Amino acid sequence: MKSSRPLTRKSITPEQFRNFIFAGRSVFTLENNETGNYLTFKVKQIKKNYKPVPGKFAIECKTLGDNDHGYKFLGFLDTNERKFKRRYWDTNFIGFKTWVWLLKNLSRLEDFTKLSIYHEGRCCKCGMPLTVPESIDTGIGPECNKRMYANSIQILKDLGTWNDSLTYPENARLGLEADPSIWGQIIIPDGFNKEDEYKAHRLLKAFDIF
Ligand SMILES: [Zn+2]
């Protein structure tokens, strides 16, 4: 059943993972590093008239070594409404169960020591292959990274908490304290301690799965 992993796969931290899961075109693999079982997911932003629809994603899953059937469509996620609309009939399907588990535990993946997360060597925003070592570490290409930072800064400025004399991480913290709902819209810097992340992710915990 098991197929060999592509060499481009790179293990990433839960922090990095949360920054790219909703970037637009993320493909990632969750592995149980005790059993070696793994599942690959696609979280693709929905487009209307070629324009990405904010907060709306189509979710697909591929089970281990299941090359014959490819990806199965699981349903639609709305991160603004915090709703998942199931489109896959079999709720016992391991891909579906894992997806629900992932949504419920997104803010505390650090606690699952058997879990490894990999991206597929492509930018999770635009889908282009990653070549720069730093990008391979984070899962986002340099151009998309620049754009995501510029976008994050704009969101923080619109919120009214931006302070030019502070660093980006300090500003991000201020912004998240003022409005935790901007999580998922701005880049969360490395080094935020878990408590802060919990606060920022508390809205995601409220995902209404069924
Ligand atoms: Zn990109």
Describe this structure in words.
- The protein has 210 residues and is an alpha+beta fold.
- It folds into 2 domains: 10-139, no CATH class; 143-209, no CATH class.
- The chain contains 6 helices and 7 strands; from the N terminus they run βαβββββαβαααα.
- It has helices spanning 14-20, 94-105, 133-138, 142-159, 168-178, 194-205, and strands at residues 10-12, 25-32, 38-48, 51-62, 72-78, 83-86, 115-119.
- β3 (38-48) and β4 (51-62) form a beta hairpin.
- α4 packs across α5 (168-178).
- It is globular and about 50 Å long.
- Bound molecules: zinc ion.
* H/E element sequence: EHEEEEEHEHHHH
Helix content: 25-40%
What ligands can be seen in this structure?
A: zinc ion
What is the percentage of strand-forming residues?
A: 15-25%
The number of helical segments is 6
Q: How are the strands of the largest sheet arranged?
A: 1-7-2-3-4-5-6
- Tell me the number of strands: 7
Low-confidence stretches: 1-7
Major sheet size, sense and barrel closure: 7 strands, antiparallel
Number of domains as seen in the coordinates: 2
Question: How confident overall, as mean pLDDT?
Answer: 83
User: From the alpha-carbon coordinates, what is the Rg to the nearest angstrom?
Assistant: 17 Å
Distance between the first and last residues' Cα = 31 Å
Shape type: globular
Oligomer: single chain
Q: What structural category do the secondary elements indicate?
A: alpha+beta
